[in-house]
Amino acid sequence: MENASHQANVQVESLQEQLNVVSKQRDETALLLSASQEQVKQYALSLANLQMVLQHFQQEEKAMYSVELGKQKHLIAEWKKKAENLEGKVILQEGLDEANAALNSASRLKEQSDPKEDQIEGLKKQNEFR
Q1: Distance CA 20, CA 26 (A)
Q2: What is the pLDDT along the chain (130 residues), one digit of tens a residue?
Q3: DSSP 8-state symbol, 130
């Protein structure tokens, strides 16, 4: 009986050691699981922060794009106005050129008519003397 009792004690000790090993593995696994869950939470928080930063950058980029678009539209409007002013000046210059051409032509006609008027005056004076 001692032998059976001894074998039972050896078996109990062996089972107790196995239980201790399994318990230790369970505790280590639980710690790993807890650490992994904490890491997942940290990753989720980091991801949320990165998404907020990305969204913020996208909003800033959109705002900068809108500002730049407004500037470009303003510049285009200014250049259109300048072009219209230049077009008006070109039209005025063309009118001035035509008026100057007409004045030059009238001046030439006057120059041509002055000697003829002098001739007419001379003939009138000759006619008066007769």
Answers
A1: 10
A2: 788 888 999 999 999 999 999 999 999 999 999 999 999 999 999 999 999 999 999 999 999 999 999 999 999 999 999 999 999 999 999 999 999 998 999 888 888 877 777 777 777 777 777 6
A3: -
The Cα diameter of the chain in Å comes to 188
Torsional class of 77: left (φ above 0), alpha (ψ -120 to 50), beta (otherwise): alpha
Give the whole-angstrom CA distance, residue 20 versus residue 28. Answer: 12
What is the Cα–Cα distance from 125 to 1, expressed in whole angstroms?
180
Which residue has tokens 């913020």?
56
DSSP state of 110: H
